[in-house]
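user: At home tonight, take the chain set out below, taking as long as you need, and be ready to discuss the fold:
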Amino acid sequence: MPKTPRREAIDAIGKWVTAVATVAGLFWAVYNTIETRALEARKPFLDLQLKLYQDATESAAALATSMDPKILEENEAKFWRLYWGVLAMVENGGIDSASGGVEGAMVRFGRALQQNPRNTKTLRDASLDLAHACRDSLAASWGVPDWSPPRYSTNPGAR
């Protein structure tokens, strides 16, 4: 039984749809492989950044809240080691940007610590600033918008 022109057109369209779907699937697989490898390449940096940010915020929090001389001495040494060393490899922002990011927050905490190491109000504020800068940096680095802070309107009537 010979094929009708309509049946031949349907068969041709079917073959084209199959070919396009196959090529699209191939491109999707290649794209996913590239994305996975990019994340794998970034993972050591991201893991180190997370660990060092945790160390910096824990050290700053201890300096801002503890009264124990031993804890203060250990954490001040730890803070300055991070400040002058390895944290600079992973911190973002730069002191010239608007907020300065983690780098700016570290500088502000360091200045507060040098100017008056027992001004707990100033150190607590600077410690929170550092923790928030680290959170924002991690949200950007890891690409997780849930880590970003909520944005509240300063206008109560705005929706």
